[in-house]
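dumping this here before i forget
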Amino acid sequence: MQSKSKRFSLSKLSISCFILFSVADGGFTLLSQSSFLSARAFHTFCGETTSQSRDGHPISVVYESDRILAIDKPHDIPHHNGGGKNDLGILSVLRQAQSRGDLGYQGRLYGVHRLDRVTSGILLLAKDAEMASVLTKAFREGNVTKYYVGISNKKRTKKKQGWVKGNMVRGRRKAWYLTREMDETATNMAVTRFFTANLAPFRASALDQQTPPMTCILFRPFTGRTHQLRVAAKSVGLPLAGDPIYSDGSTGSLSERRTCLHASAFHVDLREHEHETVSIWSPPSFASHLYQAEEDRSGLNNVVIQLMQKNCNCESILELLDRYH
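structure:
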């Protein structure tokens, strides 16, 4: 029997997100639509507002069925609890939200994949152990299509798109780096496809004029290694703006705000497990951290959409983008 999804009630100041489901017969139903730029506003779900992280950033529910919950995770929340009592991981933050009655779903949530502390965007959670196993296996075996959006303060090199492949090895001070091992000795292979777009036309209204945003990067990871995309960006000469580990020290005042990396699109087909196909689009929310002019914030939105439309190979996500744009 097909799993049924709850529908969303959106306020006029809803957070930027777009959700599309495909049902068993292959049809699509558009559930919600909202502005790309209202980064600090948030929507209501079934009449209730979503939770907030410890620094006041909203944690929005972007998808819910009887077996899956997806949120738009703010940056600066780790996956696991940290050393201090106020340094809570995302599951602990959500449990607090449940205890306050800020989250409609009151049952147990299971983590099935991770986002780095500095990364914002779509995070899928399971509501039961069986679905947790199904989703964990889908991520592990590469059956989940994922796209991330990043911003760099560096100009594009001659290689404007391509592959980053290598073995991930732990370095000093929590850093990772890529080696060229590509044979059976490579036990932690990372594979990433990347595409870039020039942001120089929007430089005039950049909030940080010394180190303005210069390049938008679209990542398509085929593996899920720790710090994979942050290392990939650095390896092609485009360290992410605000990255506390992999930047070259030229990220300016932006580094005091956040790392510009956002999990923007997910697609997973769960029909063989009696659940709908799930496709989610959540545009990056850092435009307001980058530009003063509304037209340049919208310009970044258009750049992201064009990168996706040109390079995304997932029909479900492209269908969603067509309706969004």
